[in-house]
TrEMBL record:
Protein name as annotated: Guanidinium exporter
Subcellular location: Cell membrane
One record GO biological process: xenobiotic detoxification by transmembrane export across the plasma membrane
Organism annotation: Xanthobacter tagetidis
Record NCBIfam families: PRK11431.1 (NF008512)
InterPro entries assigned to the protein according to its UniProt record, in alphabetical order: EmrE-like (IPR037185), Small_drug/metabolite_transptr (IPR000390), Small_multidrug_res (IPR045324)
Length: 105
């Protein structure tokens, strides 16, 4: 169950990163509220995952899911660059996440 918590925490990290963009510097109420709730729930789920996943692995996976997910949303929603080197770099992060999962009990 810890890996499920960690995965959802990573997805919520994507949510709060995107939410910050829409909050316009925390000047818009609803995007700001959604961002804060996403941060709190994400950190709570990360803390639950730490009961059985080593901190180094959990934090790297959490941040990696947030990084890859936010980059993908940036490409899909905000028309950010799809330069091959950028895509390859995002892919390397994703491969690293899979590797961490495979070597962690």
């Amino acid at each position: 169950m810890a890996w499920v918590y960690l995965f959802v925490a990573g997805l919520l990290e994507v949510g709060w990163a995107i939410g910050m963009k829409y909050s316009d510097g925390f000047t818009r109420l609803w995007p700001s509220a959604i961002t804060v709730v996403s941060i709190v729930v994400s950190l709570f789920l990360l803390s639950l995952s730490l009961k059985s996943i080593p901190i180094g692995t959990a934090y790297a996976v959490w941040a990696g899911i947030g990084t890859v997910g936010t980059a993908i949303v940036g490409i899909a929603v905000f028309s950010e660059s799809t330069d091959m080197l950028r895509l390859a770099s995002i892919g390397l992060i994703a491969v690293g996440l899979v590797g961490l999962k495979l070597v962690t009990p």
